[in-house]
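So, can you check what follows?
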Amino acid sequence: MRINSVSKEQITSQILIVHNKYKIRGGEDSVVENEFQLLKKNECSVDTYFVDNHAIKGFFQKIITLLQTPFVWTNNQFIKKHLTKDSSSTVIHIHNYFPLLSPSIFRAIKKQKIATVHTLHNYRSICPTALLMHDGKLQERSVHHSSWWAVSKKVYRNSAIGTFALCCMIELHKKLGTWHKHVDVFIALTEFSRDKFIEAGWPAGKIYVKPNFIEDRFNGVIRIDKKGGYAVFVGRLSEEKDIATLLESWRYINYPLKVIGEGPLELLVNSCENSMIEYLGKLPVDKVLEYVQHAEFLILPSICYEGFPMVLVEAMCCGTPAIVSKLGSMEEIIDDGVNGLHFAAGDSYDLSKKVKHLIENKPLAQEMAFQARREYLAKYTPEKNYQMLMKIYHRAIENSNSVD
């Protein structure tokens, strides 16, 4: 379900952003910060309530936190500060609630008749895997049935206790009707994600599509200067990003590849003996964007259902085409043959063919770079995103005020 624009004057009262920060900063944390700054820039009255996983110290506290996840009513400090009768909040926008808040926060807010918006960054509320992926393969049993299968597989950090706690959270709030009764509007990042939640039984009429965005570094200029001469990967070095397929594909390619990021598969990248592959590790954001800007193309070989990878927005902003797995939201975001190319997920040979196709067709790569930049200006600027976000907040208020 897509949305039209709305004026700032329609949202005049307090907006509260709620987020459980991750220990290792990722895309979700960046999205939350971007949206907060966007609202401040547009002179909205906005506040934040953040909790941080760094507060969970020691093995036993981790276990206690996980066991409380399905049932905790919500954080007492949050209730005291923000859900009192004189609360000025008109909209409470919740991003990640796991593990310190739990979905019970929506029930508490609903009792106070405050409008709620929830961004669906991943699939954690459907499946303990969060990615609908297990053992290197897509796994949708939680979408079509229940999540209990995951306990024996220990899908959450190889922990039966942790996985059990997550399954309890998922199945409890499914049974209580939390997602149907206690949330006014959901934000899905792509149509693919929206369809997947609807397939899992979520209320279609409450789910709206709003993508991620970033600030324009080039002040509306349509063509971006490039030094070129290399490809780039940016992201977490982990199984779901399928680094192994990327490295394997470069056996057939004589062209520089720069790998940026960190994660459990760093050793795999570091031990690669291909002289064409340069591992740069973790870099500051400005440096990452500089490498993305000057790359001929970016590669995203994920084998999971990505939400809306920030790196694709960054690439389009920089006028850099992307070669992505023909899978889920990636297939939707990148228009094959227009602003990038698709390849068969997990197929190193097909990936190598698509890489060679761009290397050997310079005019095509340049046209795709132009189209990537046009796509960003048309869909992913802060101005476009602000209008969409205001409309969503307005719809949440309408839904909150309506009689169930």
Notes: Confidence is low (pLDDT under 50) at residues 1-8. The chain has two domains: 8-213+382-401, 231-379.
